[in-house]
Design brief:
The protein is α+β, with helices and mostly antiparallel strands and 172 residues long. The chain has helices spanning 2-22, 69-85, 100-109, 122-129, 159-170, and strands at residues 26-27, 34-35, 40-42, 48-50, 58-64, 90-96, 116-118, 139-143, 148-154. The strands form two sheets. Strands 1, 2, 5, 6, 7, 8 and 9 form a seven-stranded mixed beta sheet that branches. The chain has a two-stranded antiparallel sheet with strand order 3-4. It starts with a helix and ends with a helix.
């Protein structure tokens, strides 16, 4: 009986996750935009940075952690896209759900060309407030110039998925 119950629970979780994946990549309908409240976090050098610092840009924000393998695998993609979109008024931002020390050690091995903010465990709540209701990482959002989350993706994202989203938002 316990095995059957366990199989049912695993099946339901898998089914629910499957539905979540189907909705994982989405350019949001205007009625579903999530407003972004002002917040600030220290960057990897300790300097306090406010999200409004980049208010005139399309902001691609990636929530990640050093202990998350898919998160680490995505970082070179964000470095590449920062280079590609830098002159198109797009800013990549990383928000580490981690402490400053492991992030600093990690960035020695894989430097990034975009601001890396340190949120610690508070990043989980921040990501939740920005639409990450599954508390999954990596979690990537795009915030428009009107300060709304207009795109969200739970889990590892591909270059094609992210470029399609960015390009679609740039032509609007």
């Amino acid at each position: 009986m316990k095995k059957i119950l366990l199989i049912i629970v695993i099946g339901l979780v898998t089914l629910a996750t499957g539905f979540g994946v189907q909705k994982a990549v989405s350019v949001l309908n205007k009625s579903k935009y999530i407003p972004v409240a002002e917040f600030s976090l220290p960057d990897n050098t300790g300097k306090q940075r406010a999200i409004s610092e980049w208010k005139d840009k399309l902001r691609v924000i990636n929530f990640w952690a050093t202990w998350c393998p898919p998160c680490r695998e995505e970082l070179p993609l964000f470095v590449e896209l920062q280079k590609h979109y830098a002159d198109k008024n797009v800013q990549i931002l990383g928000i580490a759900i981690d402490d400053a020390e492991p992030v600093a050690e990690f960035l020695k091995k894989l430097p990034v060309n975009y601001p890396m903010l340190i949120a610690g465990q508070g990043g989980i709540e921040l990501a939740f407030n920005l639409g990450n209701f599954a508390s999954a990482i990596p979690y990537t959002i795009i915030v428009d110039k009107e300060n709304n989350v207009v795109f969200q993706h739970s889990g590892e994202i591909t270059k094609v998925q992210l470029q399609e989203a960015i390009d679609g938002l740039l032509v609007q």
